[in-house]
């Protein structure tokens, strides 16, 4: 392989930028890294804006501090690599609530994404089936099986546990429904123990025991100044050339690597590189792979996405004050447009203001209900304000500022079998085109740490394919 290498990273979200940083760390000196982002903004779903004179997240809000094995998460490790570890802060209020029968009830402890390990602890919000979670003498699922989360939990705990606990918890993350989402992809720790344990409560407890957390250890973190500082620092550390408003329309294999067709149809730019990290959502990735890798394209092209809108309101100090909660989740059975809300200035101590202005963000939109998102911004904001007031049981003051951020096709909907489809696509790519690698939420799961790890793993594959590290 000639030196220096030339590597294209298609997609400027956190997965692509994490790949660029890892390439800079592991590839030979002088490697040319170019990031192509079709929009004008880097960061993907990480976007810090400003509202009522202070930074506020218009996209992802925080990251997990630990990985499933209990070690430091990939997001924390990246922040440390970028010199941002001292800017990590944690929620000052961790208790959240569920909306049940129109009112707020604390989310019970001891669950795994809403799936209880002790049925007695969830009776305040849901009535589990009596004696349904029996030991049938065999593991809950087979060694290679995948099922929907909803199907498994309904069969063991009944409808109310799914609808009042699991569905809103998963909906807050994926904007999807438990009955449609893959256990293996969305809850991998539970899937592993379900292949061994004979009861669901046993599987939950085993999954929790496999990743113990010391009391008082923070679960989530964010960065002072906003998560966009992570993006800016990653760009700097990667030393990559960044091409904004640069859509990659075609990938063509060459004798030495890949040719990218970039830009408008009438005036395309052709760029030759040695390797490509494809860090874009599944559908655009499938379009780019249709020519050089049709089998891989077919496997990932099935993935569907949900759209959401995030409505953030700045309201004068409410009287009475907002409850001491980080926020709340809303089961779809409650009939509200809101599916989740976060009390930013309550949850995050560093965002609290001396003037008492409260920042409240609501998430709107569930999979299959995109028609609601066609409403004008003012209508969405007014509906959110009205529903927040109803849930809190007191009228919120009129907002002094507001922002509506729409994320079209933002959240992957992982149907059962997703992991196997992605694995098959990657196997096909490695066999035919080892210098073309997939990365991102569409393949490996949502959340900043998962996306960071996905990008870093893709970079390592590229380094191996091109001949290994020279460092």
Descriptive overview:
The protein is built from 15 helices and 22 strands. It has helices at residues 14-26, 74-81, 149-157, 159-174, 183-186, 188-194, 200-210, 228-238, 282-289, 294-300, 344-347, 377-392, 418-432, 441-444, 448-465, and strands spanning 6-10, 32-36, 48-51, 54-57, 63-64, 88-89, 96-100, 103-106, 111-112, 115-116, 220-223, 241-243, 248-253, 258-262, 269-273, 275-278, 304-315, 327-329, 338-343, 358-364, 401-413, 436-438. The strands form six sheets. The chain has a seven-stranded mixed sheet with strand order 8-7-18-19-20-17-21. A five-stranded parallel sheet has the order 12-2-1-16-22. Strands 5-11-6 form a three-stranded antiparallel sheet, with helices on one face. The two termini are 16 Å apart.
Can I get a quick summary?
With 471 residues, this protein is α+β, with helices and mostly antiparallel strands. The protein is built from 15 helices and 22 strands.
What class, by secondary structure content?
alpha+beta
Query: Separation of termini?
Result: 16 Å
Please tell me how large the radius of gyration is: 23 Å
Stretches with pLDDT under 50, minimum 5 residues: none
Strand percentage: 15-25%
Placed side by side, the strands forming the largest sheet appear as: 8-7-18-19-20-17-21
Layout of helices and strands, plus pairs?
Layout: E1 6-10, H1 14-26, E2 32-36, E3 48-51, E4 54-57, E5 63-64, H2 74-81, E6 88-89, E7 96-100, E8 103-106, E9 111-112, E10 115-116, H3 149-157, H4 159-174, H5 183-186, H6 188-194, H7 200-210, E11 220-223, H8 228-238, E12 241-243, E13 248-253, E14 258-262, E15 269-273, E16 275-278, H9 282-289, H10 294-300, E17 304-315, E18 327-329, E19 338-343, H11 344-347, E20 358-364, H12 377-392, E21 401-413, H13 418-432, E22 436-438, H14 441-444, H15 448-465
Helix pairs in contact: 1-8, 1-15, 2-15, 3-4, 6-7, 9-10, 10-13
């Amino acid at each position: 392989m000639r030196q220096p290498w030339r590597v294209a990273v298609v997609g400027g979200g956190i997965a692509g930028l994490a790949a660029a940083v890892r390439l800079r760390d592991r590839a030979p000196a002088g490697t040319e890294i170019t990031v192509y982002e079709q929009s004008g903004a880097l960061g993907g779903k990480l976007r810090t804006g400003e509202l009522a004179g202070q930074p506020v997240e218009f996209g992802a809000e925080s990251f997990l501090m630990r990985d499933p094995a209990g070690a430091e998460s990939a997001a924390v490790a990246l922040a440390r690599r970028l010199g941002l570890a001292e800017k990590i802060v944690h929620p000052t209020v961790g208790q959240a609530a569920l909306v049940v029968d129109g009112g707020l009830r604390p989310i019970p402890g001891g669950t795994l994404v809403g799936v209880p390990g002790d049925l007695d602890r969830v009776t305040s919000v849901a009535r589990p089936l009596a004696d349904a979670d029996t030991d049938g003498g065999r593991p809950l699922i087979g060694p290679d099986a995948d099922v929907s989360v909803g199907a498994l939990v309904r069969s063991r705990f009944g409808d109310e546990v799914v609808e009042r606990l699991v569905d809103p918890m998963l909906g807050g993350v994926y904007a999807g429904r438990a009955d449609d989402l893959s256990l293996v992809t969305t809850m991998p720790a539970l899937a592993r123990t379900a292949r061994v344990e004979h009861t669901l409560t046993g599987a939950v407890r085993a999954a929790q025991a496999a990743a113990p957390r010391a009391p008082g250890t923070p679960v989530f973190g964010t960065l002072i100044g906003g998560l966009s500082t992570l993006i800016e620092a990653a760009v700097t550390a990667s030393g990559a050339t960044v091409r904004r408003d640069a859509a990659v329309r075609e990938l063509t294999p060459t004798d030495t690597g890949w040719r990218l067709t970039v830009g408008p149809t009438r005036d395309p730019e052709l760029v030759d590189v040695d390797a490509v990290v494809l860090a874009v959502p599944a559908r655009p990735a499938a379009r780019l792979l249709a020519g050089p890798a049709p089998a891989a394209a077919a496997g990932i092209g099935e993935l569907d996405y949900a759209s959401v809108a995030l409505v953030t309101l700045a309201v004068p100090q409410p009287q009475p004050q907002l409850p001491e909660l980080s926020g709340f989740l809303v089961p779809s059975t409650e009939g509200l447009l809101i599916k989740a809300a976060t009390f930013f200035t309550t949850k995050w101590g560093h965002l609290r203001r001396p003037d008492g202005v409260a920042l409240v963000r609501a998430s709107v939109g569930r999979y299959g209900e995109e028609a609601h998102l066609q409403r004008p911004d003012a209508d969405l904001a007014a509906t959110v304000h009205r529903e927040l007031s109803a849930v809190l049981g007191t009228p919120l003051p009129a907002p002094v500022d507001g922002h509506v951020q729409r994320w079209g096709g933002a959240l992957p909907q992982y149907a059962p079998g997703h992991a196997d489809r992605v694995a098959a696509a990657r196997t096909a790519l490695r066999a035919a085109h080892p210098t073309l690698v997939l990365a991102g939420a569409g393949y490996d799961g949502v959340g900043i740490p998962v996306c960071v790890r996905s990008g870093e793993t893709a970079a390592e594959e590229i380094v191996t394919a091109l001949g290994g590290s020279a460092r």
